[in-house]
Amino acid sequence: MGIRKRTRRLFIPVFVLGLSLGGCVTNNFPGSHTAKADKFRQALNAGDTKSAQDYLLSKKESEDNMLYMMELGRIYNLQNQHPQSLDALGIVVEKFEQNDSKALISAGSAADHAQAALVNDTMIEYKGYGFERIFTHVNQVFNYLGEGKNEDALIEVRKIALEERELTDAHEKEIAKTAEKAKKNNINTAMLDSNFSGIDLIAGKTKSSFSNAYAHYLSGVLMEATGKASDKEFALTSYKLAFEIHPGSTMIQKDIERLSGKGIRQSSEVDSEKGTLVVLYEDDFVAKRTGITIPIPTASGSAVAVSFPMYTKESVPPVQNLQVSGNGVSVTTVELTNTSALAAKSLKEEIPAMVLRAVIRVAAKYAIQDQAGKQWGDAGKLVAGLYNVASEQADLRNWLTLPNSCQVARVPVVGGKQTLALQSGGINTSVDVDIQPGKTTLVRAVNVGQRLLVNTYQL
To answer: pTM here?
Structure first.
């Protein structure tokens, strides 16, 4: 009823807004965030990110600054511009903290947001997903390691475990809140489930939308490397959390056995000669959302077409492993986290909230079209109908410079300097390492398309 009372006032302004939806072009990055992210990715692959960084910096005060700072922080990180990345991702952390009192799945705020109710979900401020929150801290860890601030990196990995516990509690509450609101409004949020069944093929690779075995394993490696008893306990817990996500991993099982004192211990002579090589591999880019249109019936028996985000099997890049070879080294990385699966799982869990918002939006748009017909006849009804079609746009926003696949390999190596050969999917490079007996050498390789970015860290 409230929507009908406001339609005469809102129709003309909203229609004008609709005409302007696709007309804004800024610098060399026009279009949707997906289109922009394609250029960010191309810039990383080409090794020329200046224009992308400048554009993202210009969005620092925008409504969606969280998303822009995610992309900027990742680009800075991969370009070894660690202070700038720390600052950009620090803004992301602040935004997450500001939103902690709000819904992670924002059905309530979106339903009350006039623009979202009359236009589409892209009018809602981007608030990020749980898996993106964890990856923010992962990238901060690498920033601190790149600056030689290992103690700060240890503080950051402690935040990962804390964030995941808090996400678990808050996430369950918000899902329950969405269900309660849908029941109150007599809306069946499962009415469109069959249209999203394809997401399960991707989301099925993970049990949680934010639990990240790669992040836990990285935490374990850093904590174990300190040699402190208390840190080793933390490392053991981290490995166990990673193993819960990947119970079939023999690598993680051996780590747990070693720290639990159950594994086969090497002799002191061998230990004194060898160090530990840990290779972290981040492959390709996370899958992009695509849009689908689904008709939702109105009170009159007609239907309004509504756009929703979607993942398809074709949108997910194939997983490529990294082969590492050298003097006494021949290992292949194994996947611990598939970010595309986390993103798909996040979308799957948000579908009830999206359907709730869509039904409210359909009611609002139908009311506008009905009122326009009464006031201006068939012409008014036609214009309103055209607006309803033109204003529909699927929300495709995500942190799109994140990797598709996160992988790890671990091997004991005789101490000394050597050159390691790295190969993945036809891409080759090499890296010099200095294995120190009794210490851990960390190699991080990131595939940004047709180029491997490699860094080493001594723990």
So the answer is: 0.85
